[in-house]
Amino acid sequence: MDQDVLQKVQSNPKFAELVHKKTSLGWTLSVIMLVIYYGFIALLAFSPKTLGTPLAPGMITTLGIPIGVLIILSAFLLTGIYVAKANNEFDALNKQVVEDAQQ
User: Fold this and answer.
1) Cβ distance 44 to 51 under 8 Å?
2) According to DSSP H, which parts of the chain are helical?
């Protein structure tokens, strides 16, 4: 990449906005996932009987199974949120930065 183009991109306020938004969203979603995951691990460590409780009397399936499924689904949901933002807001900002740099 030409140094002049690189300088234009780095000095563009839209580029700074793009970096800030991507970083903020990435950290926010990461923290949410870590809280969910480590919350599950903490529950398992400090109250294992809770996860071993049957969903209903006489059932084999325990509370841990649907909670585990919800953890996996939350990862898909958080990934979907990031992809949606990336495909809409971030791509539009990226396109503006590229157009500004080419002028």
Assistant:
1) yes
2) 3-11, 13-46, 48-51, 64-85, 91-102
